[in-house]
Design brief:
The structure is a homodimer.
Chain A (H helix, E strand, L loop, with lengths): L5 E5 L3 H13 L4 E5 L12 H5 L14 H6 L2 E4 L2 E7 L4 E6 L5 E4 L2 E4 L3 E3 L12 E3 L3 H13 L4 E5 L3 H12 L3 E6 L10 H13 L3 E4 L5 E5 L2 E6 L4 E3 L2 E4 L3 E3 L2 H6 L22 E3 L6 E2 L6 E2 L4 H15 L13 E5 L2 E7 L2 H6 L4 E9 L10 E9 L5 E8 L7 H10 L3 H6 L14 H10 L3
Parallel strand pairs in A: 1-2, 1-7, 2-3, 7-18, 9-16, 10-11, 10-16, 11-12
Antiparallel strand pairs in A: 4-5, 5-6, 8-17, 13-14, 14-15, 19-20, 21-22, 22-25, 23-24, 24-25
Helix pairs in contact in A: 1-8
Chain lengths: ~450, ~450
């Protein structure tokens, strides 16, 4: 009689639960235990701004599956259990429950899926009531409750990335006067400046006040809660402050155990999600991955990537031979009616790679010009000189603009050229597109620059 | 001093005018004359249903550029001038103006862009007032005027393809009681039956009565206009009848001159748009092309393809070295809120090619399930067994569904596999997609069938 192997998963969100679920489907005998530090598992972190904004009315709607759903799959899920350390030699972890004694548990295979956390500036006052950063669903629920119960009137958001923009929209939907402070000359630093300027404009259109080229130096408090944000030369009054200042991988637990760390402290894995340490795997926002355009290591924290990594880890943990080839840096968001998307490399990244590249920006309409509701769309496209290989794209425009980035993402996956995109048989009908899809119009213009 | 070369273009719509315009841009000395049989040039034929439906209020909005716009580009445009014959040996065409004497004109290069015309069933009564088929913008304008001035109450549409569906929606927007007669068991015969059934359902949802498995045997008239459509076993009363029974290429003029014809009588061209006859070119709805999935000759009549072909012809006519690699059979339309799209091969086409293939159909949502406004989407996906190469896709669903076909079209262009699509870094945020885009969910399911 064989003794069943034991899998321990650290972290119960997208990557961890996808892996557990896949592993179970392929291997009925595997003993699977998930330790999750927080109260929730398997939740849609990306949905938190819509909870705060009131588009979603119950945090439970953001929970895809509950522990009991996994228990039925014979996956043991222990929430409010924090793994404090990993002993690689002993193949064990030490676990601290919220209530009760710490204990150790051994594993045959260990999957680290500890996610990411907000990257916060080094200023004082971050713990002041009324100051928030979105760490996990509990923090999202806390912000949601604050907004509903404390009825803040003036919010300051720090950081103009995806989270900052989505939170700005959410707070405007709640009727809160909102100022967004961003260090760069335009929001969305992952876009080139002229495209970032369109994102800045979209924020202004929904009534957000922008303070660009500024950064907080401190938080002020009064009567036990936040009163304002101090910038270099002024203070912004605020009864709500939200940080959207990016994320960093939770790689420390792995690093302290001796698992090698890479880009920004993320856990080094190969395409099968194995770390260099035997029987230790990592997936999701804590893990490093490969940029498919540059071929170099990179790090992203995105639910869709975490799901894919988790699935690959789970298949392999159950004896499969799956691999995850990496990311393109695709991302999308919306501010009011304006959709913002990117994939591949931006100009700064092209230059950083030492690539000889050309880029163009074109303006077009989302539908046939005569069709009612046609909106503006701006497409920026990058390609390598010489090879004409597509390198990246950015899109900002009205409804129907953003998901056009997917066709370019597919081109990047296939290593296609500008001419391939010009020639491509994309879907056309007046309610959907001009005769030449705007990404193809950009490709036509770019082809003359190469 | 060199004598300038003379280009004659037959046909002044998408392909002909694109070619003329491109050729002019590259070669200022070329003498360019366009002969167009009808009154309009450079119009958006695909926009006619929206004119009829009242979403577009002026036929001029469908005209992209007028003859005088081209005259300014030094392109001579003669409307209401029909080319009656081509003399290949003499390198000349004989032209019949609507008013005046026929004349002959010689060319150095000839581009045939005579387009396509409705394919009508062989029944009597087609010329009865109140019976329409969309041939060119003039016929669209005539239908538009009939609908506005004669106020028809009961319409019958013959044919459940793209034009039939779009006309059905247009007439319903006008409040006209509409019956659609279609020969097959479901509308949209270019989809597999289960997807066609969803398109049939979409028509019923906008109040169209469907008669499937039926076909007209005659048109009845009373008091000088149409009174009904006779089917095998019943007669449908109607004061408006519209045929949407497909199209056929206008290849006869070329064929009579000795230019070889191919699929369905379309003009054979290579990827540069040259026919096998020296100095004779063809482009647009009258020309044959290549299916990029099968590598075989095919024929499609679509504005977007005509534009691409025309551009390539124009570049080459001016001494360039462009080529058009062919089509994927991509198409898209909308009925009410339901979007319908396809690319690549359907099941019947896969079987016809003798391909060993697998297919799946999945149901999903267009956005994160918790996001307000998430609509249903059904994706059908095909791949070759063994190689796992993607072969085609069909999508039917609510707003945001249809243009997802473009990512699959890009995959087909790149020859990508099911696994490539599963792994692909497509754009995700709750207002745009579930964590796994529906086309990727289809790919995941399909990967287990291969």
């Amino acid at each position: 009689m064989s003794i069943s192997r034991r899998l321990i998963v650290i972290g119960g969100d997208a990557a961890g639960m996808s892996a557990a679920s896949q592993a179970r489907r392929r291997d009925a005998a595997l003993e699977i235990t998930v330790y999750e530090r927080g109260r929730y598992i398997s939740y849609a972190a990306c949905g938190m701004p819509y909870l705060v904004g009131g588009l979603v009315n119950d945090p439970q709607q953001l929970v895809a599956r509950r522990p009991e759903d996994f228990e039925r799959q014979n996956i043991r899920v222990l929430t409010q259990h924090e793994v404090m350390s990993i002993d690689i030699a002993a193949q064990s972890v030490s676990v601290q429950p919220l209530k009760g004694e710490a204990f150790a548990e051994t594993y045959d295979e260990l999957l680290i899926a500890t996610g990411a956390r907000p990257a916060l500036p080094d200023i004082s006052g971050l713990e002041t009531p009324g100051v928030f950063a979105l760490r996990d669903l509990s923090s999202g629920v806390a912000l949601w409750e604050y907004v509903r119960l404390q009825s803040p009137r003036r919010a300051v958001i720090i950081g103009g990335g995806y989270v900052g923009l989505e939170m700005a929209e959410a707070l405007r939907l709640r009727g809160i006067e909102t100022t967004l402070v961003h260090r760069g000359p335009q929001v969305m630093s992952s876009l080139d400046l002229e495209m970032g300027a369109l994102a800045s404009q979209a924020l202004r259109e929904i009534g957000v006040e922008l303070l660009l080229g500024q950064w907080p130096v401190g938080i002020t408090a009064a009567r036990g809660r936040v009163a304002g944000v101090a910038l270099a030369e002024q203070e912004l009054p605020a009864d709500l402050v939200v940080f959207g200042t990016g994320a960093r991988p939770n790689g420390e637990l792995a690093g302290q155990a001796g698992v090698p760390l890479g880009v920004r402290g993320s856990i080094i894995v190969d395409s099968t999600m194995r770390t260099p340490v035997p029987h230790v795997w990592a997936a999701g926002d804590c893990a490093q991955t490969t940029h498919r355009v540059t071929g170099r290591p990179t790090w992203v924290a995105l639910g869709t990537v975490a799901n894919k990594m988790g699935r690959v880890a789970g298949l392999n943990l159950a004896g499969g031979a799956a691999s995850f080839p990496g990311v393109l840096g695709t991302a999308i968001t919306r501010v009011g009616e304006t959709e913002i998307a990117r994939t591949g490399l931006n100009g700064r990244e092209c230059a950083g790679e030492g690539l000889e590249y050309a880029s163009v920006t074109i303006q077009d309409r989302t539908m046939a010009g005569y069709y009612p509701g046609a909106a503006r769309i701006t497409v920026r496209l990058y390609a390598e000189k010489g090879s004409a290989r597509l390198l990246g794209a950015q899109i900002v425009g009205g409804p129907g603009s953003g998901k056009r980035i997917d066709a370019v993402a597919a081109c990047l996956t296939g290593g296609l050229t500008v001419q391939d995109l010009v020639d491509m048989d994309l879907a056309y009908a007046p309610p959907f597109s001009p005769v030449w899809d705007p990404v193809q119009t950009a490709a036509r213009v770019l082809s003359s620059e190469l």
